[in-house]
């Protein structure tokens, strides 16, 4: 905050608050907001009825409860003191921002990601442990998928998605963030919503799934993996395309390391797919950071010239999508170490044939 000339950091709903103090605000019309300034303890302005959910840490923050007839915006403005430049959590509701701008007309507001984002992007050992635990959990589910222990043929995408979601919870996740199941031509839609389509023989089934496990201090950490299987024996075209994707993903994983520009990892994966003749069908960035959010800094995309640092965690997930026919994506989470990028996922990366 000092280095950026920020006088107050205001955090409401979203991941920054639990990451800092272990308390997750409910998305209510009643305002919860942590006010962090340069002087004194932080102040958590919270509705009186929510106080029982707060694990108090007097050495970290003071709790200021407000009742139904109080004005929480006035309490936040008072806790800010003589601030002239404040940042708000990126997911703060617009209604609270509008009220704050009216109550504090002389304050210039920005977004908290400018301050918190770089801090969250560098994981410490307990965060890496939480991410590793999540990766191991989804690896086991991927192994069940590849081993035919998650039935596919004759079931709808929605049924398989629900099955994967149950397994995420059984593996220790407290929240299912997504369980994409895309079969046949639907696999050419990168963020396909599982449908009532019945999965048949001899088609691609793309499964991209992850959830949130609780970590130390109350913050949850995310998992994310994508694997494709084929309900039969893939033909030469399928094997050729998947081989290009496999090579691109492997090169993208190997390319990461301290000091490497994020966009360079993207260009390495993209160039392999382009040289293979499928460049126009790789329609998204190579990856995204992961931590208390499934998508956060650093983003592995052209134009991001920021250098990777030890402790960065991100996905490498190139894809090739042929509209109306089929699509492939292969995704692993990696952590940047002093010696390079270490993959956290170890499930089989080949295109596996299943008959289930």
Number of helical regions: 8
What is the ordering of alpha helices and beta strands?
A: EHEEEHEHEHHHEEEEHHEEEEEEEE
Give the termini distance in whole angstroms. 55 Å
Number of strands: 18
Structural commentary:
The protein is of the alpha+beta class and 356 residues long. It has 2 domains: 8-119, 3-Layer(aba) Sandwich (Creatine Amidinohydrolase, Chain A, domain 1); 122-353, Creatine Amidinohydrolase (Alpha-Beta Complex). Helix content is 29%, strand content 25%. It has 8 helices and 18 strands. The strands form 5 sheets. The chain has a 6-stranded mixed beta sheet with strand order 4-3-2-1-5-6. Strands 7, 8, 9, 10 and 18 form a 5-stranded mixed beta sheet that branches. Helix 2 (72-80) crosses helix 3 (94-103) and helix 7 (236-255) runs antiparallel to helix 8. The radius of gyration is 23 Å and the shape is elongated. The model has no long low-confidence stretch (mean pLDDT 95).
Can you describe this structure in just a few lines?
With 356 residues, this protein is of the alpha+beta class. The protein has helices at 16-21, 72-80, 94-103, 113-121, 125-146, 157-170, 236-255, 262-275, and strands at residues 8-11, 33-37, 42-47, 61-66, 85-88, 108-111, 175-183, 204-214, 220-222, 225-230, 287-289, 296-300, 313-316, 319-322, 326-329, 332-337, 340-343, 352-353.
